[in-house]
Amino acid sequence: MDSTRLEFPPIDESFLPGGDFRSNFRFWEPGRSGFQRKIWKKTQASVNLTDSGGHNVSFHGRRLYPFHFLLRHYPYRSSQQASRKLFEDRKMDLDAFRATGWGSHYYRHRRDPTRIRRPEDLCDFSSSFYDDFLIERLSAIGFRELRHRLPSPVQ
To answer: Is 83 a domain residue?
Structure first.
């Protein structure tokens, strides 16, 4: 099944380990790839997740469900946690990631992939989201246009 992905970057350094993600991360932007296919009904077919870095399952006979699940992605919780995750744990080389096409939610902020974002550059996630973005949520149609209306991240 496809997933329409929303990115929830931090807007301050207030998140505490073990805290509630939904109350700490209210501001979002559409995920850059728009969707991910990593939910499937188990069959006897061999599954390949490796080629896509775990983002797009492939197997013989795969059929896609017509509606998407909503995937709330929290790429990092604070600038300190992002630095540790990217440059210590993963030893991320921004140019290598760019060549593979993976991790674009990190390397598009080339100057500082760990930076804290401004709320005014993002959308506020509220209870009206499910009504306001019904078509986009179920199909990912229209999120590309929404990305063009949001302020561009610093390159």
So the answer is: no
- pTM comes to 0.71
Query: Amino acid identity, residue 90?
Result: R
In what helix (H) or strand (E) does residue 3 lie, and over which residues does it extend?
strand 2-7
- Structure tokens, 107: 């390397």
Tens of pLDDT, residue by residue, the chain (155 residues): 588 888 898 999 999 889 999 999 999 988 865 467 888 888 899 999 888 877 788 999 998 888 888 889 888 888 777 777 776 666 666 676 666 666 555 555 445 556 788 898 899 999 899 998 898 888 878 776 675 565 544 43
Host domain of residue 54: 2-77+118-149
- CA triple 60-63-65, angle to 5 deg: 155
Enumerate the β-bridge partners of residue 3: 36, 69
Q: Is the distance from CB of 49 to CB of 13 less than 8 angstroms?
A: no
Number of folded domains that form the chain: 1
